[in-house]
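Morning, I've got a small favour to ask if you have a moment. I've dropped the whole record in just underneath, so have a look.
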Amino acid sequence: MMKPGETYNEWHRREYPNQYVWENYSYPEFGISDEQLVCKLPIRIFNCDNCQLIIDNVEISEIHKSTIDYIIMNQEIFVEDIKKSVFEYYTFLWNDYLKDFEDEIKYPNPAINAAAIVDSMITPNSIHLTGKISEGYFGICFICTFEDEHGLGIELRNYKVNKVGGSDVGFSLHSDN
């Protein structure tokens, strides 16, 4: 219940102090909904300039903080693992149906091109963490040139690529118990 003269923001801060932990943390432009915390992350890999962090929880734990810090400080170490995994996934899709489109610019033949083509094909747009996680468990969703309809998602466990697929792989994570 609001106190006399108290604004909604003051009441909300008093009633839900854990939702304001972001103000003491280093990430700009955060937002809070009833079920998620959202902010921008300084991600530089794959020509990213606007990547969001989305945590499916209204509080941030120490494991969330350490995972986020590790991602930001060590993002370059993920690049080769992501490239290799995305290239394998792209090769599978190309062999399955992308080659039928006969568009060498949008769908270059992976047998002729190296894994370096991945650099120009993907851009991360969000990193997802569940409410209860293990250190190093998160998903990344990408905008990609070769799959407009389903997008691209990667699940990482222990900071290593575990699964690649449509964007749902990057955001449909399961809370660890």
Observations:
- The first strand starts at residue 31 and ends at 32.
